[in-house]
Here is the input.
Amino acid sequence: MAINGKTLGIALSGGGFRATLFGLGSLWRLNDAGLLGNLDRVTSVSGGSIIAGVLAHRWSQLKFDNGRAGNFYEIVAKPITDFCSRSIDQSVILWGGVNPFKTAGDYLADSYDDALFKGATIKNGLPDAAKGQPKFIIYATNLQTGRSFRFRQDMIADWMLGTSAKTDVSLAFAVAASSAFPPVFSPVKLTTDPDDWEGGEALPNIRALRQHIALADGGVYDNMGLESLVDNVDIALVSDAGAPFEIVESAPEDYLMQLGRVRDILIDQTRALRKRWLIEEFEAKRKFGAFWGIGTRLSNFQGASGMTNDTAVTMALENIPTRLNAFDAQTQGHIINWGYALCDISLRVNAKLPIPKATEWPVPAHTF
Here is the structure.
């Protein structure tokens, strides 16, 4: 599925439903450009894993012609916009708090399964990478090893624990683990057979660590899912809908609030370092591809023609709360269209892919 002999991949960041819809806009532009069918690898974190999971689960239903799926709206976009029209975070937190036998993470997985994945697993619900279809990597964070934890079609993996090609889990579980932001949704607990694992580090308690695994949002370790993307494809595309770091006038004095603030600072710093590294790699031409974030300004693309201009509406989108709560049709349309527009100009200017400028909006009722 190479483009002029080069492999292509995309990373879809975290950021709640904001990231899900922004990632949808990015994928929509890839599809209209005839590039979606040429993807070799898709990595995802948190809210980005919702759209990645839907794309993976329904890949076999897409009808591609020259890299473009004519039924993309019906198969991928419509289920996502319907799902993002409902609130799930408050209800799963409530039920997780009153039921001693199920956690909020369990209810989160149930919500994903009921609405989107219908019992699919990572082995029977994802494309067959061995047949040239894209490889999907869904990221969570292992709270015990402090490393990224990956769900793929062919295995689950943790750099410290090794890999297990035998373990199968539901696609809903993988997406729930990826989006289980602490402390309200995590930990999501996974039990595996220690004998199913290979490789890893020679840790004295390796069997116990492999048997009972506590997982949280993939964004705790890497909010853009870059690790298994940039070194494995020739052209790396990154769609980042992470929110800007909030500057507060007064630091919290409550112990728990302070811990939350410190957590946010650490995550933001890690994210900033990864982003800075990636852009430096692109600029030095050691890596090739494009990065676009929900806070990117079209004015940054000097001399290039975009689909719209920066407006008060576009600049406010990055400040939409990171929630899994219902978005109205206008908000959805604005986020999708913004992801589409930024992806369009980034593909042409930064990735230098030979595609024409987009002239039609995916959600024409809510343009800027």
Residues 19 and 241 are 5 Å apart (CA to CA). The radius of gyration is 20 Å.
